[in-house]
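Chain A, query sequence.
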Amino acid sequence: MSEEDHWEREFDHRWANAAEHKEPSARARMLAARWKDNPPGPVPFRGDPEPVAPRRSSWVSTAVVLCCVAAVILLLGYAQTRGLR
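Chain A, predicted structure.
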């Protein structure tokens, strides 16, 4: 007997799909019970996102990177003239 035949004997998909009554999932039952007494309020399809802190402009980031590169170059030049390695 192949694995597929075993699975079909274990659980007949056609029989399950042909069922007249399909029981809702546990989450659906829980939400239905909760919303029965206290229904949720209306929610927009896509709510407004949370406010985001403004990003620094790109030139500030570029200036910081260039200053760091210049500092490393100067530090390496200073170390080379002093004979430090």
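Helices lie at 3-10, 13-17, 26-37, 58-81. The chain has a mean pLDDT of 81.
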